Prior knowledge:
The protein has 147 residues and is α+β, with helices and mostly antiparallel strands. It contains three helices and six strands, in the order H-H-E-E-H-E-E-E-E.
Amino acid sequence: xxxxxxxxxxxxxxxxxxxxxxxxxxxxxxxxxxxxxxxxxxxxxxxxxxxxxxxxxxxxxxxxxxxxxxxxxxxxxxxxxxxxxxxxxxxxxxxxxxxxxxxxxxxxxxxxxxxxxxxxxxxxxxxxxxxxxxxxxxxxxxxxxxx
Length: 147
């Protein structure tokens, strides 16, 4: 694993948060669904979303696509925290298991990097509805180098 692909150790948490929040400006879909990033630390991201009618499927559960989106979002941005500012990441693989229906008021997604690499970051995510874990995901994020 090459250290050239990881954010400098000297970057403060405030600098990291500023960098990630700047990148979030281009993340239109996250804003469309109403998700808010609440925790930004090296290799770990948390997002919260208040469930509203537009987030539900026909039986009143949080839509599976919404849950997968949140898992992808936190896993991807967890990887972004570990690459230099001019690099990016894209999802190469996402596998999600739905454990319970999402019935409640608040979704919280937590993503972290299991193993960062020069070309691939291996990540995991959990999605919680109130106090119940409703989904678990694993993701592979491909590192995109500047051209």
